[in-house]
Amino acid sequence: MMKKIIWIIILFLLYVTVLGEDGGLLKELVNPSRLYVDGGQVFVVDFPRVYIYSLEDLSLEASFGKEGEGPGEMRGFARLMFDDGDIIVEHHMRFSYFSRDGKFLKERKIPVSFNRGVQKMGDKWVVSHTDQRKDKPDLTDLTVNIYNDTFEREREIYRLPYYFQLNKPINAIYLPEADRRSGIRFFVHDDEIFVEGEQGEAGS
């Protein structure tokens, strides 16, 4: 299974960088941006569409998505998560839920603070966002936090100085790694949170 996933990733990268829409592979795609593999299916975001392929033979099983602000429509971008058989699409302060065959199920508004990455962990949400320091309210950090299902913060698990501070000169010390310090990379696996820290990845 892992070898097949690796080949699919290679195929995706080859399509994006070399073949394009004239390559004959995954011909539905025009400008794919994200690839996910879950539950025997491959999901490709080609905004505003999401294409669902069989992991077995890469045959197209379904597609969904339309740009707009109505129910089931998407605006700006689309990031996917998977929960209890549903596809959760994060886009512009909303979570839109779809079935595995692309049918729209429901929608939830999310806090504006959910702006630098969010992943599902059981009945919790792991969220990265900026946050003011309690001891120095004029300074801002990047944080990773655990929220409950009603979007209330339960606890903070990681904090990193933000390279940009409002009304302050940019800290030149952080400029070589400004891209990383504009957001924290993290992922969730088997109810464990892995955060890219100063010395690499650390689980929590």
Short description:
The protein has 204 residues and is mainly beta. Helix content is 11%, strand content 43%.
Overview of the structural elements:
It is a single chain. The protein has 2 helices and 15 strands. The protein is mainly β and 204 residues long. The strands form 4 sheets. It has a 4-stranded antiparallel beta sheet with strand order 1-2-3-4, covered by helices on one side. A 4-stranded antiparallel beta sheet has the order 5-6-7-8, with no helix packed on it. The longest helix is centred in the N-terminal third of the chain and has 18 residues, at 2-19.
Strand/helix succession: HEEEEEEEEEEEEHEEE
The total number of structural domains is 2
The share of residues in extended strands comes to 35-45%
Q: What is the SS-derived class?
A: mainly beta
The radius of gyration computed from the alpha-carbon positions, rounded to a whole number of angstroms, is: 19 Å
**Tell me, what's the shape?**
globular
> Can you count the beta strands?
15
What integer is the average pLDDT? 79
Enumerate how many helices there are, as a single number. 2
CATH class of the largest domain: Mainly Beta
Helix content: 10-25%
User: N-to-C terminal Cα separation, in Å?
Assistant: 28 Å
| CATH arch. level architecture of the largest domain | Beta Barrel
Quick one: biggest sheet? 4 strands, antiparallel
Low-confidence stretches: 174-181, 198-204
Strand order of the largest sheet: 1-2-3-4
